[in-house]
Amino acid sequence: MKTLRPIVALAAVSVAGAAAAQEMTIVSWGGAYSESQLRAYHEPYSANTGVTIINDDSSAEAVAKLRAMNEAGNVTWDVVDVVAADAIRLCDEGLALEIDADSQLAAAPDGTPASEDFGDLIVSDCFIPQIVYSTTFGYRTDLVGSTPPTDVCAVFDTAAYPGKRALEKRPINNMEWALICDGVAFDDVYAVLETEEGQDQALAKLATIKDDVVWWSAGADTPQLLADGEIVMGSTYNGRLFSVIEEQNQPVAMLWDAQVFDLDGWIIPAGLSEERTQRALDYVKFATDTQRLADQAKYISYGPARASSAPLVGKHADLGIDMAPHMPTDPNNSKRTFLYNYEFWADYRDDIDAKFQAWLAQ
Amino acid sequence: MSDAAHHGSQDGLNNGPMLAADGTPLKQSLARSLRREKMRALMLIAPLLLFVVLSFLVPIASMLFRSVENASVEETLPETVAALQTWDATTGELPGEDVYAAFVRDMVVAIDAKTHTRLGSRLNYEETGMSSMFRRSGRQIKKLDPVEDAPFKDTLIDIHKGWGEHQTWAVIKTHSVKYTNGYFLNAIDMQRTPEGAMAQPENKRILIKLFGRTLQMSLIITLACVLLAYPVAYLLANLPMRVSNLLMILVLLPFWTSLLVRTSAWKVMLQQQGVINDTLVWLGLVDDAARLIIINNQIGTIVAMTHILLPFMILPMYSVMQTIPPSYTRAAKSLGANNWTAFWRVYFPQSIPGIGAGSILVFILAIGYYITPEIVGGTKGVFISNRIAYHISSSLNWGLAAALGTILLGVVLILYWVYDKIVGIDNVKLG
Predict the structure, then answer these.
(1) Residues B103, B108, B110, B114: what is their CA dihedral angle, to the nearest 10 degrees?
(2) Is 0.90 surpassed by the pTM of this model?
(3) Least CA distance to B393: which residue of chain A?
(4) In chain A, which stretches have pLDDT less than 50?
């Protein structure tokens, strides 16, 4: 809200002035992530076109706010960074513009059309993929003894790894990990989770460690808990763990096993004026081309969503270390992975969340 | 006033009405000037009134209205809803071809307007699976022609087996009313079914528990605030000005610090490797292996919220205590009361209005808190507001969020009324 107010004021001023045509508001997550976008996308785009980009760190509430703006008939955002699940909901609600990848996004340098270059990552008609990130575990190297964990089921093994663990305070990902560690095959997880018995089975597995879990709701929680030695292992986004390990030099290591891939990308709000839509499309075409996506990986350890960007990923801009081994998509890290099942969670999220919260409150 | 004018006319020498200087009857002239006065007063407050109505009452009213509003089913599927009127959802048989045909006609229009997925999200709150059913079927139904491709019953069941399930149509029919009690039923762990209101399955009941917990913990927090704030306010009011000013700054300082910063500071204090536990272990009061768990549970929420809300208790208490003349206590003592009697019988009763004002303030603020419980409350220390926030920003089930908010507002109003009956609202003072 605090960041929004000056923007609204600015927007009001700019409507009066002729500068209106040269401004756009881009919504993202803030912190190191927005910083990487600023350096990889915004700065070169502004230099090329003269368009002033205003940042708004509201992505966490983007769906609710876009719906409210849409109802009020006054959408003040031009491009919004959201996770794929939110993009699907915004598309369902008619709040995001449908995109034709091949005609509206840049082709790869070798001429491969965008739809092929992004491939399966275009999970919704409105979604323009940007990065692949993963939710995975990090552990304290000094608290796990001589046998560091290599398997995600170490989370459920309180005998071998005593101490608290941090899990996100929502069913998504936790239910899958619980089922895998309860003997369900990787490919059967969602079929099992569709049934009442499967949901009970997952909760029962989680119940075995319930007293040892710290439940987090912000991505920054697990890194803080790890750094303070409050927990022995915890789930969070891989980029957060990268900064704990490489930037803050904490005794923490990654447990990539059974990491859950998720996607983050852009949507353009529905209901913008023709002129603003064109400007937003122009920005998005630039910001998701092969080179730009590879550039972002210089500043943050998230994998570019285009196949053609992967070979271009280089070294971290400030630390000078090779970024490829830190990407969730690196072959060494992705021996066993999940892709967030968007359709399943769109259907079951409310139902399982109610059961999960009721279980938590018991 | 009109009474006085009336008397005037009777006592006057003339029998006719008393006239003002301009010849109109005095009564009328007076009424006119009073009306002008009122209009002027109204004009003065008009900006504020307009502001309050537009920025406060209208949004609240429209949010509360969402808790019963349910037009989207009928608006998206008008013909289907009409056709379903004659279908009895309790017999267990699927609706006839007329419903399926009407449904395809409705869907073709809805898909064109891209409203079918929105309806899917709406119905998914009631029946899991509707969201993908509408999204997936939409792609297929788009290709159908509402006239030529009839009959549709088998075609639709081929597209998605959900259309062949009785439950699907029962849900559509049950939730096709324009104004629904469904959200309120959901808010109290019940659901709307063809057979009437039913309880939610046991493993999904959580909201009533959270309402109870919110009230109970808010009361504990209010009580803790009273106990901690009273001595501080007493000192503030009775110490010499120079010392009390310094104390006042200490009270206000946390007030000027961001809520998130204060809550995060409590995390550093309370966690198992935190300041309090470290000190206790260092002093040898607690064993290193058995560090206290005082965060991510109810204790964490109570401690952090008591601290955050304390100034709201101290300030009204202080301003009331300042108005109590010290001579009263002195008089009591000179008449033979000891220190305790003088305080309890003379000073304390006069300070009650401050306790009342502070308690109402703290309690009502506590009931609506969600950031602090979310950060330090773990699983057992979260409030109903955390669920409201979830439904507003994550699940987008604004109807349910509105129903929960309405109930919370109702509870606060009832408690306010009870307070008025027991203590009397006239007895609340802010100084």
Answers:
(1) 140
(2) no
(3) A64
(4) 1-20
